[in-house]
Amino acid sequence: MARRYTSKLTWDDVTPEHLYLNRRQIMAGTGALLGAGLIGGQAQAQDLEPNTWEEITTYNNYYEFGTGKDDPARNAHTLTTSPWSIEIDGMVDNPGTYSFEDIMDGMTVEERIYRFRCVEAWSMVIPWNGFELADLLDRVGVQDGARYVAFETANRPDEMPGVRVPVLDWPYREGLRLDEARHPLTLMATGIYGRDIPNQNGAPIRLVVPWKYGFKSIKSIVRITLTDEEPFASWNQANAREYGFYSNVNPNVDHPRWSQASERRIGGGLFARREPTLMFNGYEEEVASLYEGMDLEANF
Ligand code: MTE
Q1: What's the whole-model pTM score?
Q2: What SS3 state is found at 138?
Q3: Which residues sit with their C-beta closer than 6 Å to ligand 1?
Q4: Domains in the chain, please, with CATH?
C-alpha cells in the first residue's frame, strides 16, 4: 500500500514478521492476496510466499564485503550509511548531489513482493519497500537523447574489505536501457519487511529489477548517470561470454557452465524445492514488449 515516506520510522511503524505473515494469510483468505503494490497477472499466479527476514539478510552476494554468501551479513556493519548522498549527472536537467533525505522527500514508498532469481540458480521472494525509479528520473528531468542509465556503488576501501581485492573492477557498476529503468516494476528499494534495508542488502538505497538476474540489482548506490552510450556493467566487463548486458532471466538460455532451466528456492528446510525458472522470472506479461523483435539468445 502506498504511504508517504517518514524519515524517522519508529517501532510502531514496523510490522513484526509474524504479524506480517499473519496479515498476508488473512489477506489471502479475503482474496486480496498481494496488496496494492504488485503489478500484473502472471506473477500473481506463482508462489509468492516471502522468505524470512533471516533468510533474506544472511544469504546473498555483496562482493565489496567478501565473496562468501555469509560474508555480507558478517562484514557489512562497517559501512557508514548516514549521511548518504547520490550524485545524479549526465543528460539531466537538474544534475547535482542529492542527499538521501532530499531524494526521499515526497517519494511514494510502496511495498512490492518480488521474486528474486540469482544467476547462480537459486531464488527467494522478498518484500521490498521502495519507490519507482521513474519517479526519481522525472524529478531530475531526463534530457532528449539519453538512452541508458548507469549506476555506481560506493567504493570505500576503509569500510569495504572486499574492494581491497581485485575480484571485480571496482566500483561495482551496472546499467539499464532507459525504457527498462522507467518500467513501473523497476524499484529503488530502501526497506525490507517495512524496516530500513540492512547494510548487507545494499543500504541505504539500491536498485531492484525483478525480471533480471540478481547481479543487475546494484546495491548502496552513490551515482546515477544518464547517458547515450551502453554503460559499463561489472559482470559483463569481467566475463562477457558468461554475463550479457541485458541479463534477463531466461530458462532457455543456459549460462555457459550451468543450466538456467530451474532454480533452488532458498528456505523450506531439508527438502528445498527445485522449481522451473520462468521467462523473465515470471514477469513476462509486464516486460516482454520491451524486447519485441530482439534476439534474446544473442542479447542475453
Ligand atoms: N551490488 C554490489 N554493489 N555488489 C555486489 O557484489 N551482487 C549482486 C547484486 N548487487 C552485488 C550487488 C548479486 S550477484 C546478487 S545475487 C544480488 O546483489 C544479491 O543481493 P540481494 O539478495 O540483497 O538482492
Answers
A1: 0.87
A2: helix
A3: 60-64, 116, 118, 153, 172, 201-202, 214-215, 217-219
A4: 11-291 (3.90.420.10)
